[in-house]
Design a protein that fits this description.
alpha/beta, TIM Barrel, globular, ACMSD, Amidohydro-rel, decarboxylase, Metal_Hydrolase
Length: 311
């Protein structure tokens, strides 16, 4: 019998965030069949489609935007909190990840604290790059955000986003040596209890993990190895990758309690994720106990949420 399912990379738009930008990404989303209707809904349609995929609890996050301002993020998080509160009048099937103004590290830290302490959010989902500085968020100026996330003991979900026009035209660069993979960048030395979630089966890291470990010495001078960071600070989700082949790889090199089920709604439908989970159940790759860890128990422990039980 399939255990309860909690999903973490599930997108939505507040009017505040959706109206704040207009770029190629937005135009692409508008052309995606059914996406806008679903992204603007946090009610009956979303719940109906959660039921189709047997999703017990959905952690809602804003879909990608264009580096929203502190004011836009605040308004967007307030709107999401209202939607969650409204839904809780009849059920407890939603929780929230905050959207943060990554262009302003100080403001991002303050908004994360407000969203967690006042709005009851369980972390944040942010684009992996920002309009600040060199376009990445591992520089010292972002210590204030990582410190706040560590103090609050909530994870930050790093979501991929399209390169900016400037990045399309120039080589990528970061706060690390040119030959380094850049995943460490000194951040985890300073904040050893920081929790980061990465979607889509780890964004290729598990498949290149042995190569990264072999090249660890080229990452520059760091206090912790990449293996230590991967094992202790990184969680990965299954969002939008419906094959057992990557799962076989991940089970061989990733701690079972750092793997989380997710869908990537509405860009992948909940029922497709459920079909895959049923395939996983039948595959014999996992024990019943480990299936439950991936389905909901790991998420409950990481986020401090609880999958609702049926009457």
């Amino acid at each position: 019998m399939t255990p309860p399912l909690i999903t973490l990379e599930e997108h939505w738009y507040s009017k505040a965030v959706f109206d704040s930008f207009d770029n190629a990404l937005k135009k692409g989303i508008e052309k995606w069949p059914g996406a806008i209707e679903r992204l603007l809904d946090a009610g009956d349609l979303r719940l109906k489609e959660m039921d189709l995929g047997k999703v017990s609890l959905q952690i809602i996050s804003h879909c990608a935007a264009e580096d929203p301002s502190p004011e836009v993020c605040r308004a967007g998080n307030d709107q999401l909190a209202l939607e969650i509160a409204k839904s809780h009048e009849t059920s407890t099937r939603f929780a929230g990840f905050a959207v943060l103004p990554m262009r302003d590290p100080e403001a991002a830290a303050k908004e994360l604290e407000r969203a967690v302490k006042k709005l009851g959010f369980v972390g944040a989902l942010v684009d992996h790059k920002t309009g600040h500085g060199n376009g990445f968020c591992e520089g010292n100026e972002y210590d204030v955000l990582w410190r706040k996330a560590e103090q609050l003991a909530v994870p930050i979900y790093l979501h991929p986003s399209w390169p900016t026009e400037k990045q399309f035209q120039q080589a990528y660069a970061g706060n690390y040596s040119p030959t380094a993979a850049g995943t460490i960048g000194g951040v985890f030395d300073k904040f050893p209890k920081l929790k980061i979630i990465i979607g889509h089966f780890g964004e290729m890291i598990p498949y290149m993990l042995d190569r990264i470990r072999e090249q660890d010495h080229r990452l520059g001078k760091t206090g912790r190895t990449f293996s230590e960071v991967y094992d202790e600070n990184i969680w990965i989700t299954t969002s939008g990758v419906w094959s057992l082949d990557p799962m076989r790889c991940i089970l061989a090199n990733t701690k079972i309690d750092h793997i989380l089920y997710s869908v990537d709604y509405p860009f992948t439908m909940n029922e497709r994720g459920f079909e895959w989970f049923q395939e996983l159940e039948k595959s014999g790759l996992l024990s019943e106990e480990d299936l439950a860890l991936i389905a909901y128990k790991n998420c409950e422990k990481l986020l401090g949420v609880k999958a609702p039980t049926k009457d």
